[in-house]
């Protein structure tokens, strides 16, 4: 699933291609991908592209076009013959088409008056200056649930998904099922640094690509090669050599090192 670095990479890749362009028309190839009527986007200029958590908000001359890539979506721009798996396309005034390419077909597109109506419920943006270790400590101290589902909860913190939660917990030495309010201060500091570092490092290389994600910025999602636990079941831990284990926590496949991340 595209998480913060992948969605941000899409945003950065699209910016030079579509900002300043007018949306002339659109076509829906997979009906379920459009949640509400899109007629209002016609003949509107794309003023800027914003991201909050995993949501993309295209600021139009009036209102916002919202796209959520969900499981496996990405966005391409071009004039060449249409690729497979396009669920929605937007015709731009320079002859290009902006396309939601989504073989799993879970991606969603809709129109709203205000971006805030869509993203208002989200927790802090982990790479923003407003988010720091003090805030994270305060946020975690009141939570009694397990760490993995807590960090996946977009209302708690925005933009993290399965990959970056597993990687961040590994860097902090926190077991995925550990109760939040018992994690000591030193490891919350490591967690804060872990979250910021994995996201930043991943962004630098265009995110993580397995099969489904292709960046629009020409980067190829090379972060896959740097993952320390995610998708590395059975391989040795890069710190202690112990075999990386995969368990299920709240039905989510979860990777960790049983020696470095003790509960
Ligand atoms: Zn280890």
From TrEMBL:
Top-level lineage group: Archaea
GO BP, sorted A to Z: base-excision repair
Pfam family, one: Fapy_DNA_glyco
Protein name listed in UniProt: DNA-formamidopyrimidine glycosylase
Location of the Formamidopyrimidine-DNA glycosylase catalytic domain: 2-107
Reactions catalysed according to its record: Hydrolysis of DNA containing ring-opened 7-methylguanine residues, releasing 2,6-diamino-4-hydroxy-5-(N-methyl)formamidopyrimidine; 2'-deoxyribonucleotide-(2'-deoxyribose 5'-phosphate)-2'-deoxyribonucleotide-DNA = a 3'-end 2'-deoxyribonucleotide-(2,3-dehydro-2,3-deoxyribose 5'-phosphate)-DNA + a 5'-end 5'-phospho-2'-deoxyribonucleoside-DNA + H(+)
Database matches in InterPro entries: DNA_glyclase_Znf_dom_DNA_BS (IPR015887), FPG_cat (IPR012319), FPG_Glyclase (IPR020629), FPG_N (IPR035937), H2TH_FPG (IPR015886), Ribosomal_uS13-like_H2TH (IPR010979), Znf_DNA_glyclase/AP_lyase (IPR000214), Znf_FPG/IleRS (IPR010663)
Subunit structure: Monomer.
Every FPG-type domain range: 228-262
Keywords for this protein: DNA damage, DNA repair, DNA-binding, Glycosidase, Hydrolase, Lyase, Metal-binding, Multifunctional enzyme, Zinc, Zinc-finger
Cofactor: Zn(2+)
Molecular functions (GO terms): 8-oxo-7,8-dihydroguanine DNA N-glycosylase activity; class I DNA-(apurinic or apyrimidinic site) endonuclease activity; damaged DNA binding; zinc ion binding
Organism: Marine Group III euryarchaeote CG-Bathy1
PROSITE patterns: FPG_CAT (PS51068), ZF_FPG_1 (PS01242), ZF_FPG_2 (PS51066)
Family: Belongs to the FPG family.
């Amino acid at each position: 699933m595209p998480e913060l670095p992948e969605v941000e990479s899409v945003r950065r890749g699209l910016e030079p291609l579509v900002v300043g362009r007018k949306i002339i028309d659109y076509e829906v190839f997979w009906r379920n991908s459009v949640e509400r009527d899109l007629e209002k986007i016609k003949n509107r200029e794309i003023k800027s592209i914003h991201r909050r958590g995993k949501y993309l908000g295209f600021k139009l001359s009036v209102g916002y076009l919202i796209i959520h890539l969900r499981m496996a979506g990405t966005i391409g721009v071009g004039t060449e013959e249409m690729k497979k798996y396009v669920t929605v396309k937007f015709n731009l005034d320079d002859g290009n088409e902006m396309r939601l390419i989504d073989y799993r077909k879970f991606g969603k597109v809709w129109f709203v008056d205000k971006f805030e109506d869509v993203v208002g419920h989200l927790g802090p943006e982990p790479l923003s200056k407003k988010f720091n270790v003090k805030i994270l400590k305060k946020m975690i101290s009141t939570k009694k649930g397990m760490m993995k589902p807590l960090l996946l909860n977009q209302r708690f913190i925005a933009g993290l998904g399965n990959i970056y939660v597993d990687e961040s917990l590994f860097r902090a030495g926190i077991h995925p099922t550990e109760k939040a309010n018992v994690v000591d201060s030193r490891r919350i500091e490591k967690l804060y640094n872990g979250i910021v570092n994995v996201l930043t490092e991943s962004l630098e290389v265009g995110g993580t690509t397995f099969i489904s994600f292709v960046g629009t910025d020409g980067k190829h999602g090379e972060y896959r090669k740097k993952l320390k636990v995610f998708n590395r079941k059975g391989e040795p831990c890069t710190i202690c050599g112990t075999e990386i284990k995969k368990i299920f926590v709240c039905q989510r496949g979860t990777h960790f090192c049983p020696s470095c991340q003790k509960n």
